[in-house]
TrEMBL record:
Its cofactor is Mg(2+). Belongs to the MobA family. The keyword Lyase does not apply. HAMAP family: MobA. One of its GO terms (molecular function) is molybdenum cofactor guanylyltransferase activity. Coiled coil: none annotated. Its EC number is 2.7.7.77. Residues 6-165 form the MobA-like NTP transferase domain. Mg(2+) binds at D101. It comes from Aquamicrobium soli. This is Molybdenum cofactor guanylyltransferase. GTP binds at L9, A10, G11, K22, D68, D101.
């Protein structure tokens, strides 16, 4: 079976880290994006980066850079749509997305998302992990998305939709629940304190 393409959502600006692309921040001698690629790459077929602005800043990665196809930066779903358009051009049936600031994402993310969608017989799957109370917390930037829904998504975004879960609930989705011990694999770097914690996870060998 052809492996599912992966799209890294790198549109977040590191406003709490001094600005710029969060995926370009250094962790353990490598960029956050390098860590994401090292984990997601072996799980996927082709890879692409979803980001706006000058694509040349990502040239060192040697991957396609997908700009939003809709104006006014409507958020992560626009990145999903750009990824679906790219996948359609390449004859793929679906994509898996991951965030560029999450260096410890699961090494079995793609397989678990695909299994969850197949078992529930729904087109979309989202990742989740337990919150402080043990309840599942969804991570909607980590999802399996079918190319067949791209025109529906385009129409919804053009109509003002911005929240991922509103759209996924409309079509039906499965949840793949990942353990949050010894750390939450969807931990993302937003602040200098988060970077210190990421360094501690990396140096602790638990990642």
């Amino acid at each position: 079976m052809t492996r599912i393409p992966g799209v890294i959502l790198a549109g977040g600006r590191a406003t709490r880290m001094g600005g710029g692309d969060k995926g370009m921040l250094q962790l353990g001698g490598a960029k956050l994006l390098d860590h994401v690629l090292a984990r997601l790459g072996p799980q996927c077929g082709e890879l692409a980066i979803s980001a706006n602005g000058d694509p040349d800043r990502f040239s060192a990665f040697g991957l396609p850079v997908l700009a939003d196809t809709l104006p006014d930066f409507p958020g992560p779903l626009a990145g999903v749509l750009a990824g679906l358009d790219w996948a359609a051009e390449n004859g793929a049936d679906a994509i898996v997305t991951a965030a560029a600031d999450t260096p410890f994402l699961p090494r079995d993310l793609v397989a678990r998302l695909a299994d969850a969608a197949a078992q529930k017989r729904v087109p979309i799957a989202l990742a989740a992990s337990p919150d402080e109370t043990g309840a599942p917390r969804r991570h909607p930037t980590f999802g399996l998305w079918p190319v067949s829904l791209r025109e529906d998504l385009r129409a919804e975004l053009s109509g003002g939709l911005r929240k991922i879960v509103l759209w996924t609930e409309r079509h039906g989705y499965a949840t793949a629940l990942f353990a949050a011990s010894p750390f939450d694999p969807f931990f993302n770097v937003n602040t200098p304190q988060d970077m210190m914690r990421a360094e501690a996870i990396l140096n602790g060998g638990a990642a």
